[in-house]
């Protein structure tokens, strides 16, 4: 009975973990895809922050959507998951700094994070959204770092008996 309960709990936790990875990675795949669909508008969105001169703003606008999609796929599939989480969490940190700098300078930005139709210049909304995403990303990254492999019964039987 206890092993069934443990198995059920393990199954629920695995399902929840899978859902959180799907949610986090999916947000960035969706955002990256929307940016790729309208690259000219995303270049304008990057320029609205007034942090990078050309051609660097254009390079960021061309590179970032692909990075988001690839890192999001890594988070979902588990292939290079820790690296994908590191890239996306780092990106969120950079986004938060960029938003904060633009807000402190009084610049009216158009954050095209989710395409030009969903562009928002509401600083509080952008910061809250990115902080929540970063909290989820940090949680998932910490879980990935804590992942402990349980030795198989064959490897346990090869251990020397404990001296008591």
What does it look like?
The protein has one domain (17-143). It has helices at residues 2-37, 39-48, 56-77, 81-104, 123-146, 153-157. The protein is mainly α. Helix content is 74%, strand content 0%. The longest helix has 36 residues, at 2-37. The chain is built from six helices and no strands.
Helix and strand layout, with pairings?
Elements: H1 2-37, H2 39-48, H3 56-77, H4 81-104, H5 123-146, H6 153-157
Helix pairs in contact: 1-3, 1-5, 2-3, 3-4, 4-5
Specify the number of helices: 6
Spell out the helices and strands N to C: HHHHHH
As a percent range, the share of strand residues is under 5%
Radius of gyration from the CA trace?
A: 21 Å
The rounded distance between the terminal residues' Cα atoms is 31 Å
